[in-house]
Structure formats: C-alpha cells, structure tokens
Amino acid sequence: MDAGPHGRMLRDQFVFKLVPMINPDGVSRGHWRMDANGENLNRFYNNPSKSHHPNVFYIRELAEKLSQNNLFFFYIDFHSHACKKGCFV
C-alpha cells in the first residue's frame, strides 16, 4: 500500500517509535487506567520507578536518550476510554 508523497516524505525524514500498549497486565485484568498493582501509570511519567513502573520508566528513558542526541521531535499519547467509544490524544 502506497501512502503517497506525504507518507514517503515522513518515512524518509523521521523514525517512528511506537509503543502499542503500556498497560497489558492491567487491561488483561479489566483495568483500563490501573496496572496490576492498582496504580494509574499516567501519573508516573515525571518520576517512574524502574521496579514499580518499568513500562513508563523505559519509555521515558528512551525519550530522554533520543532527546540528548537531538533525535526526539514529539511524543503523542493516544488513549481509549472505558466508558466511551473511540480514542483521544
């Protein structure tokens, strides 16, 4: 499938890093915002614990490493909602 000239230009000039889901253990237990320990992972981006919030810890570490090398342009966090259809940014 060809995305056309805009898609080709984006792929030629940028590297996309995708994290499909940071909370699979919580979602598998029916929690949409909370992980398996009952913590909302969205609240730990400022100071994640490597042992308690490893998913957030390593995402932040990757972003910081890319930023130090001037390879970080922006971050988009897509969310779904347990009570609503669709997703939001």
Query: pLDDT below 50 for ≥5 consecutive residues: which ranges?
Result: none
Average pLDDT reading: 82
Tell me about the largest β-sheet. 2 strands, antiparallel
The helix tally amounts to 3
Summarize the structure.
Helix content is 34%, strand content 4%. It starts with a helix and ends with a strand. The protein has three helices and two strands; from the N terminus they run H-H-H-E-E.
Structural notes for this entry:
It is a single chain. By secondary structure, the chain is mostly helical. The protein has a domain at 39-89. The chain contains three helices and two strands; from the N terminus they run H-H-H-E-E. It has helices spanning 4-13, 24-28, 54-68; strands at residues 79-80, 87-88. It has a two-stranded antiparallel sheet. It is flat, with a radius of gyration of 16 Å.
Annotate the secondary structure layout.
Elements: H1 4-13, H2 24-28, H3 54-68, E1 79-80, E2 87-88
Tags for this model:
single chain; 89 residues; mainly alpha; two-stranded antiparallel ribbon; 2 strands; 4% strand; flat
